[in-house]
Each structure stands twice: as structure tokens, then as C-alpha cells.
Specification:
Shape: globular
Structural class: mainly alpha
Oligomer: single chain
Order of helices and strands: HHHHHHHHHHHHHHHH
Number of domains: 1
Distance between the termini: 28 Å
Strand content: under 5%
Number of helices: 16
Radius of gyration: 22 Å
């Protein structure tokens, strides 16, 4: 039922955002004119600079995960970590309703590093920290930009995004300090224990296992290092958006680029359409409209030169992002560390908790894993210790 609801929301987001940004005949002519006026010799250096910054962004986004995994006793070598992350990012982009978020934890489980539920806890921390960073960017930029002519949605959006992610951080802190009471309280708010008690017990066991991944919140050094990598990731990402905007001739300020990036990040954290089609372009246009002087919701503004240039930029930015993450994901699948079999097995939600509410048996943790076909590539597990709680058998 939950998956069906999420799919409906995802497809609804796809239909709505595609309808909002779909160009009519006149707009398509304007887009063609914008592209025709681009001079490759002038545009190429900006494109090269943007792609160079994307390399740094990808490395920061991928390698920072080790700092979240460290408190679990898990350390993945840079090669396998890049492969796992690249395939996971491709899945996040391609799959609707954030189903791709399960791929990276699933790949760690396939590699016998830790349970998928515990790894998913680190992904939850990652998403919430990223949400707080972009919410603070949006709030600061919008607060500085506010005025009598500002659209009515601007500040409520900034306050709302900040409140949601701050609330999620409060939940994580309480879950770390008192996991069982916090989980039970939140479940009672959903009314699941009354309507579906057996399912509620399954969710409770799964959440308690996932909270293992929240151990990073109590590990100061790991958390500080993760925050440093995250700030670098978002700073360079916003700089890349500004550089590409300059290549298209958009008079976008650096603050405007960061505000647009932040609003886009908030927008795509909603139930995402497949491939972020429509959703990516609409939220990019919405951010650009605040700094380029057009109303993204006004039909008359669609036939202005600045709107055509902004839409061309939004479409090009989306295509570049899709091409980048598909290419990086393909390289990850071509590496010795991730296979199509692993991706297929990891696409599902963590199954560390069985349907009866008990922990399902995890994969073998022994130094010599079960024999598999030679063509099936596996992550090389690191040396295990019987005293290492992160690699102990799943609890009964």
C-alpha cells in the first residue's frame, strides 16, 4: 500500500512538473533560437570547467560516506566505495519515490560489510545533514532577498524546509539517546500499532536496527569530517551551477546560484519523478526566477527572452546531470567491485528483518564466503573480527 501511494505521488509529480515546464510551439522556437545563438568556442571552456568541478563533487559526495560508516566498524577502500556510490547515485536518479536510496546500503550488505538496515541509518543521517545544509542556504539567501515584491511562496518555503529537516535532526538525536521509546512514540503517532500491530512490530525492529547507523552522531571526529566533506560538496556543486550559467550568458549572481541549488535540492527531496523529469527543470526555473526577474508561474513570462534562456539552462543542466550519473554508474558496474547481480539484489528495501518481526539471517560473515560463479563480481570483504559488533551475526 505504501509503495502504491508513493508511486502515485511520484507519477503525479511527473505529470504536474512536466505540464508546468512543457514548452508550447512559441517557446520551442525560442529555445531553438537560444541554442542557435550559442557559440561553441565561447561555451566550451565553461562546460569544461563545469565537468571538472563535477569530478570533485562526485569524489566528495562518494568518499564522505566512509566517515558515516566508521562508527559501525566499517571501512571501504576508495575503489569499491566509488563503485558502490556511483551505482547508488545512478539508481537514486533513475528510480522513482527515492527507491534508489536502498541501493547503496544493499550493495554494502551484498559485500558483507554490514547489514543493509544499519547502513541505511547512515544514509538517513546523510540525507538529513544535506537537507539542513541546503535549507540553511535557501533560508539565508531568501531572507536576504526578501522585500515587498518577493513572491508569497518564498519565505514560507524557506521556513518550512528548515523546520522539516530540523525536526528530523531532533528525531535522530532522541533516537540515538533513547532508541526504543523514540521509535515506539513515533509509531504510536502513525496509529500503526492499533490498525496493523504485526506490521508495526516489523517496522519497530527494522527502525531499531537502522538506528545503529546513527552512531555517527555520537562520534564527534567522524561527524566533523563528514560535515567538512559535505560543505565542500555543496560549495563546489553551487559553484559549478554558477559557472554553467555564465556559459549560457545568464546574469545570475553567485548567491543566486546557491539559492537555486538549495531550492532544487529541497524540491527533489519530495517524492521524485522517474529521472527527475520535469521536477528538476521546474524547481531550477523557480529559483532562477527570483534572481532573473521573471515569474515562473506567469504564462506571459514564458515568451520572454530571459525565460527562454533560463529554461534552456535548466534543461541542459538536467541532461548533463543525467549523463554524468549514468556514465559514472556504468563505470561502477564495469568495475570489479559491483555486478548487475548485486544491483538487482540491492534494489529492494533492506530485508534484515523478516515478516514475522525477527531478524532475518544475514549473509555469511566468514572470511571465506560461499562460492559464487566466477563471472559474478563481489566486493572484497575486509578482515573480520569475532569481537567486532558491526560484523557480528544479526541478532535473533
Amino acid at each position: 500500500m505504501r509503495l502504491a501511494i508513493n508511486l502515485i505521488l511520484s507519477l503525479g509529480m511527473l505529470a504536474l512538473c512536466t505540464w508546468l515546464v512543457w514548452p508550447d510551439a512559441a517557446e520551442r522556437i525560442d529555445l531553438h533560437d537560444v541554442i542557435a545563438r550559442l557559440h561553441w568556442a565561447d561555451f566550451a571552456p565553461y562546460l569544461a570547467a563545469y565537468l571538472g568541478l563535477q569530478i570533485i563533487v562526485h569524489l566528495c559526495r562518494s568518499l564522505r560516506w566512509n566517515h558515516l560508516l566508521a562508527p559501525l566498524g566499517v571501512k571501504v577502500a576508495p575503489g569499491p566505495l566509488l563503485a558502490i556510490s556511483s551505482v547508488g547515485f545512478m539508481a537514486i536518479l533513475a528510480l522513482p519515490v527515492r527507491l534508489g536510496e536502498f541501493v547503496r546500503p544493499g550493495l554494502l550488505r551484498q559485500g558483507r560489510y554490514t547489514t543493509a538496515s544499519a547502513a541505511l541509518g547512515t544514509v538517513a543521517v546523510e540525507r538529513i545533514v544535506d537537507g539542513l545544509i541546503i535549507s540553511l542556504l535557501v533560508f539565508g539567501a531568501f531572507f536576504a532577498h526578501r522585500g515587498p515584491d518577493s513572491p508569497g511562496w518564498m519565505m514560507p518555503t524557506a521556513y518550512g524546509a528548515l523546520a522539516v529537516f530540523a525536526g528530523a535532526l531532533v528525531f535522530l538525536v532522541f533516537a540515538l539517546r533513547r532508541p526504543e521509546p523514540t521509535v515506539r512514540f513515533c509509531l504510536r503517532l502513525t496509529l500503526l500499532p492499533w490498525f496493523a500491530p504485526r506490521f508495526a512490530r516489523v517496522i519497530e525492529r527494522w527502525l531499531l536496527e537502522m538506528i545503529r547507523g546513527l552512531a555517527v552522531l555520537a562520534h564527534v571526529r567522524s561527524m566533523v569530517m563528514f560535515l567538512i566533506w559535505s560543505v565542500a560538496y555543496w560549495s563546489i556543486n553551487g559553484l559549478g551551477m554558477w559557472v554553467l550559467a555564465r556559459g549560457f550568458g545568464l546574469p545570475l549572481s553567485l548567491i543566486g546560484a546557491y539559492a537555486t541549488m538549495g531550492l532544487l535540492g529541497v524540491g527533489i527531496s519530495l517524492p521524485n519523478s522517474p529521472g527527475l523529469v520535469g521536477q528538476f527543470q521546474w524547481f531550477t526555473l523557480l529559483g532562477l526566477s527570483l534572481y532573473l526577474g521573471f515569474d515562473a508561474g506567469d504564462p506571459a513570462a514564458k515568451h520572454t527572452a530571459v525565460h527562454a534562456l533560463a529554461l534552456t539552462y535548466a534543461i541542459a543542466l538536467h541532461l548533463l546531470q543525467v549523463a554524468w550519473y549514468v556514465a559514472m554508474g556504468a563505470l561502477g558496474l564495469a568495475s570489479p567491485w559491483v555486478s548487475f547481480h548485486d544491483l538487482w539484489a540491492a534494489r529492494k528495501a533492506p530485508n534484515d528483518v523478516a515478516s514475522d518481526g525477527k531478524a532475518a539471517p544475514g549473509p555469511p560473515r566468514a572470511e571465506a564466503p560461499a562460492e559464487r560463479p566466477a563471472s559474478d563480481k563481489k566486493l572484497a570483504p575486509e578482515p573480520r573480527s569475532a569481537d567486532d559488533p558491526a560484523h557480528a551475526p544479526d541478532p535473533p
